Amino acid sequence: MKSTPAEAAIRYATAMNTRPVNLLDHDEAGLRAFFASIGEQPFRAQQILKWVYHQGVMDFAAMTNLGVDLRRRLQELAVIEPPRVLREQVSLDGTTKWLMGLCDGGFGGGNAVETVFIPEPNRGTLCISSQVGCALNCSFCSTGAQGFSRNLTTGEIIGQVWQAARALGHERNGARRITNVVLMGMGEPLLNFDAVVPALSLLRDDLGYGLAAKRVTLSTAGLVPGIDRLRDTIDVALAVSLHAPDDALRETLVPLNRKYPIRELMRACADYVSDKHKRSVTFEYTLIDGVNDHPEQARALVKLLRRMPSKLNLIPFNPFPGTRYRCSPEARIREFQAIVMAGGLIATVRRTRGEDIDAACGQLVGQVLDRTRRSRMVRETGLTTIAGTLADGASR
User: Fold this and answer.
1) Backbone phi, psi, residue 371, to 5°
2) Are residues 229 and 132 in the same domain?
3) In this predicted structure, what is the pLDDT of residue 80?
4) Domain co-membership, 71 together with 93
5) Do 271 and 347 belong to one domain?
6) 116 and 68 share a domain?
7) Are 139 and 28 within one domain?
8) What are 165-209's pLDDT values in tens digits?
9) Whose CA is closest to 281, among 298, 259, 299, 304?
10) What does the pLDDT average to over 85-93?
11) Which residue numbers are catalytic?
């Protein structure tokens, strides 16, 4: 059976006692450095980027504006290898979820992550993952209950977009099915900063997917040093998982709050939107029945956010097996929204999408080779007893 270019490169690299370079791991700056390191002109980076992200081409042999010798060298030294699509599910509402296997396996052989596409009349939003599992252990999130295995590489992050674009028939200079990308899938992106930023660069770069800053959103549970670092690194929209107006409650929902309390988080968010780029911040607030959905909590939220240029995204809680939480009743959700809007906040209620295929917010689980033993603890003791046990260590 004829081998693929990636398999041939891996065999060659093994024989030479090296590892093939996955070119998806590099943005333009990284590719320019790679080509310089092998004695090629840096402009080759632009050619590769156009083939990969504009044309969707993975095979070096098909890159006809590269010389024959260079194509041969690339087949020996490098690969273009996104995650493998292991399974595709389509919801009744049109939402699509993919299970993507990573280089260490999937379906029994290793790790896999989930990626979700949400179609709407005027846009298409792709939700991608940044880690295998999540170390932060937010008590209302199914992803966190799976434990944590490792960070994704840049190629595994941007490769989710590449695979989704191919599956959807997205054309960089034609039918643009993917108009927005959000890092709201599995993991805390700011705990994988060095791999996430090149992926953000590829999403923004005209040689990549060419998305405007407001169409690329990074969601964080509130890792304050990471927010500060992101502000000084790249221009994207920021979403912050708030979920409570006070420290006492937020610590039970988002254990990271013990290390970075709300006052520090608000300072970092204010700094993020204060510069010349006019960045935006969206605060995400999952409404949980009897926990954080009372009128006095809505009024406290107004007091907390009224001086912050921001939007509030109210998210009905999406249940998952083993959780003790329930979604707030519709009437209480609307009452909560009315109170915060009367207080001057811009507040929308996120419509739940893909719930029938477990693709809604907080439901992504993938396949995690858990190094934290949290998934075993969940099975043995239940979700209610372990919230926060790993948050302090994971935030360092």
Assistant:
1) -90, -5
2) yes
3) 96
4) no
5) yes
6) no
7) no
8) 999 988 776 677 999 999 999 999 999 999 999 999 999 999 999
9) 304
10) 90
11) 114, 361
